[in-house]
Amino acid sequence: MFRQASRLLSRSVSAAASSRSTTNRAFSTEVPSTIDSTFVESWKKVAPNMDPPQTPSSFMKPRPSTASSIPTKLTVNFVLPYASELSGKEVDMVIIPATTGQMGVLPGHVPTIAELKPGIMSVHEGTDIKKYFVSSGFAFLHANSVADIIAVEAVPLENIDASQVQKGLAEFTQKLASATTDLEKAEAQIGVEVHSAMNAALSG
Amino acid sequence: MASTAAVPFWRAAGMTYITYSNICANLVRNCLKEPFKAESISREKVHFSLSKWADGKPQKPVLRSDAPQV
Asked: What fold does the segment set A71-159 form as a domain?
């Protein structure tokens, strides 16, 4: 889907300098610090009173550099829409409930974007383990061992009422059986999944 | 560029991710123990007034509020 972007970008830049060969660059991980001098010269010949146009990459901040050796700690930023639960906390490991299963994140993890499913997220710092039940969200793991985890709701397990969970599970299982339209089925399915996850979290 | 990736069941039923995520969050909030449940519900209250415009004049506003009408 983004394959066209590099072609369109390089096409607009090379319009004024047709003899220049453009390296086909998709999303570069390094922002070039040198501006293309051939282009600037050709531009000045054609339009000496106007500044050469900026390209999107000149507005980009360079990516934070990846350390050459794997850091010993993972920096976690865990945010909710209404609060910043953990901000720049250095930990040993986090286990996140990704849609592909429980994912353990250690420092030096390969850069990943993971969608989260309802489940337990645990933050391990030495012998301390802090668990949250996450309703859904995303986890962005960066190359420099920074993990940004965003969730809509995240509660400590002690705040969940087991009897409500059982009631909800029974209610949604019944709704799933009696659902007619696709949308009703989907909503009931979501209810069953979330309540089963909470149930498993409380008993596991 | 047709992609044949399997879509999640909620997207197949016409729901967007935001709707799905909000439903999950509401379900979790409903299962909280008492002081936390009341806090989270009061935090998520919405109150807005929407009015359509016709001929340069606002029509009757639609009021959406979780607070009782006083």
From this structure: ATP Synthase; domain 1 (2.60.15)
